[in-house]
Amino acid sequence: MSEYDLMQDMMLLAVRHSSSLEAFKEYCAMRNEFRSIGPKPQDFDGQIGGGWLTPEEVNRYKPFTIPMNNVVVGMEVGLAEDVKLARSVAERFGPVTAQHFRVTKFLDLTFPSEEELAAMMKAPSTH
After folding, report:
1. Alpha carbon separation from 76 to 30, 70, 90, 96, 120 (Å, rounded)
2. Up-side HSE of residue 123: CA atoms within 13 Å toward CB?
3. For tag attachment on the chain, is the N or C end more exposed, with fewer CB atoms within 10 Å?
4. Interatomic CA distance for residues 26 and 17, integer angstroms
5. Cα separations (Å) of 57 from 35, 43, 62, 70?
6. Are 86 and 17 in contact (CB under 8 A)?
7. Per-residue pLDDT reduced to its tens digit, 41-50
8. For residue 75, pLDDT beyond 80
């Protein structure tokens, strides 16, 4: 791939990152609104609260929970694609910039391994 392709991918990654941040802000606003009217936890396991809802309560909260879930699902798909693009940019950055500045060594970007990413993305235990 060329320098042009790297620059295009870097700009795409910046735009995608900005979009992800906006989606996260939207989710946070929706979550805060839901927390102000939604059910309060009846018990806690550490920081995780829980409780039971009647079928009527579940239906009453769906107009809030379904859109929040849709935002999260969209973010999850987008973030997986962003990770793949970020890895590609990171791998190409050092060699292209070293060639451009005519130096034998240049900053190499590092990125977490698949195992490190999996550990970071693992949901907290609710036990």
Report:
1. 17, 10, 21, 30, 14
2. 4
3. C
4. 14
5. 14, 18, 9, 20
6. no
7. 888 988 888 8
8. yes
